[in-house]
Amino acid sequence: MIRPFQIRAGRALLGWSAADLAKAAGISVSSITRAETAEGPVPLKADILVLVIRALRGAGVDFVKQGSKIGVVLDTAKEG
Fold it and tell me: How many CA within 13 A on the CB side of residue 79?
């Protein structure tokens, strides 16, 4: 499950504003803000969250979990 901090971190790795991510995902800036500021699970419908994840992954962000550690990394081969 993707957490709000992972969306913020992915966006930060790309140097994107909330508006940049919203545009890339094809959703509203208010949806990005709601997703990133939530406490607990991301409060977006599954289909909208998929758009956010696809936009970030398409730009080179990957979400990783290793044991109890959760991280966000940038694939520099896709960076551009």
Answer: 12
